[in-house]
Amino acid sequence: MTLLLAAGCEGGGSGSKAAGGGAEPQWLTVVRCANSSKENSRMQKARGPRSAQDGFHRDEVTASLPRAAGNQQAEGIVELAGVRKQDLSVCLGCKICASVCTVNDLGLGVNPQELLARLFLGGEVGPQDDLVRYCTGCYRCTAACPWQVRVPDVVMALREALHVASPFEKGFKASVAALGRVYEPYVFMRALRFLITEGYLKHLTRWTGYMSFHLPHRVKRR
Amino acid sequence: MDYAYYPGCSLTGSARALDKGVRRVAALLGHRLTEIPDWNCCGAMEYGDRRELLALSGENLEKSKHLGRAGVVAPCPACYKNLKEADAGRTYNVLSPLELIDGDALSRIPARRDLRGRVFTPYYGCILLRPEGTAIRNKNVMEEAIAFFGGEIEGEKVKDKCCGGGRFFAGKWATEKLSTLILEKSAGTLVVFCPLCHMALTTFTKESKVVYLTDLLLYVMGEGGKL
Fold first, then answer.
1. In CATH, what number is assigned to the domain containing residue B183?
2. Cβ atoms within 10 A of the Cβ of B67, count?
């Protein structure tokens, strides 16, 4: 599957940090030109709508661009992740991200590129998506990507937007909100039921070296 | 050299051994670490809103400003990454303690013991090595330190694999599986520098011992007990 992320052409790719201010790749010019072409919309009408998960070719991706530009979930995620659409539109579809993804060591068969494509082509990304649930934020995908696309930042933004957080993670944020720091005893108490039911307490004997007592510090100036 | 010091939340609690080790090793190398007053959490890997995440670390850098030091030392890899990303202009010189023992510094360590006859697997995990923009300068610093004091190195293939520590308190089975993959391919004592990796590997190891690099250096300097 040859796949480019539809990211709209209004910003172009020349400002992309991944592009490093260098010459614009030829294919990006092709995408931009195709998007602005009336011929493109005629092709789209002729072909009819297609699923983002179907196999399709470069010209078919450009046909999906107007729809992607109106994708509200993608707009919100891009803003949360602190990236521009054109930083993600440089994806070449090589799938090297999938080949190095830690989540695939769990046997879950995820494809970060497919997630980005689904998101930006107007498809649904939900809280049950394996990459949303299990991405470890290891940045192996980013390191392997020819354009250093920061998929974990997008996944973290998705978690934020979809409210995907374990009771422990909620306790973490609650501690930061209340004290300005993570006070571990507070987080553990907030997540105690989760820790018991999920079988964490059986590891307590391994954690004696981590246990200590100190009073919480409340950050004054924030 | 004088540095501002950002311990981060875990080093005041579960990773206090790393905190003590970093402070002691830095002192023995002649560095002075001054803790940033009233520092706040850096957000670790828990904030999906990048502006919020960068703002948290930006506040810490701002609080270190008046200290007028040569840089900001942050031992926890997540804190190190977040502070470094917030320091877009590279005006604060955010450093990992690993960058203080790099190069000539090893020869300045007052060694009283060596590591001959011992096998170690240096394990960096993720954030110290990736992404490239915030990675440590020398990606073999732990190997060099171990070899410098005569230790034998194994398990090179797992040094940059992920232990799943970031999802430990969300999906334990995933962390167990990923950590076990690393433990199966390592040999001897695992040497780490990340509190999350330390906890994940310690939780799921069957026989391997997991230590911080600072434990190893203190042992060499004659400060620690048995490794």
1. 3.40.50
2. 16
Average of pLDDT values for B25-43? 95
B47 and B90 fall within a common domain: yes
- A125 & A204 share domain: no
How far apart are alpha carbons A48 and A70 in whole angstroms? 18
Q: Do residues A73 and A125 make contact, with C-beta atoms less than 8 angstroms apart?
A: yes
Residue B94's domain comprises 2-99
Distance of CA A202 to the CA centre of its chain: 33
Residue of A73, A101, A139 best to disrupt the B interface, most CBs of B under 10 A: A139
Inter-chain CB proximity A182 and B174 less than 8 Å: no
**Do residue B91 and residue B24 come from a single domain?**
yes
Interface confidence (ipTM) of the complex:
0.95
Q: For residue range A93-112, list pLDDT tens digits in order.
A: 999 999 999 999 999 999 99
The answer to whether the pTM exceeds 0.90 is: no
How far apart are the CA of B178 and the nearest CA of chain A, in angstroms? 7
Dmax over CA atoms of chain B, in Å, equals: 49
Residue of B nearest to A153 (CA): B48
Q: Tell me which chain B residue has its CA closest to the CA of residue A200.
A: B172
Asked if the Cβ–Cβ distance from B170 to A168 is below 8 Å, we say yes
Question: Cβ separation of A157 and B50 shorter than 8 Å?
Answer: yes
Average predicted confidence (pLDDT) for chain B: 95
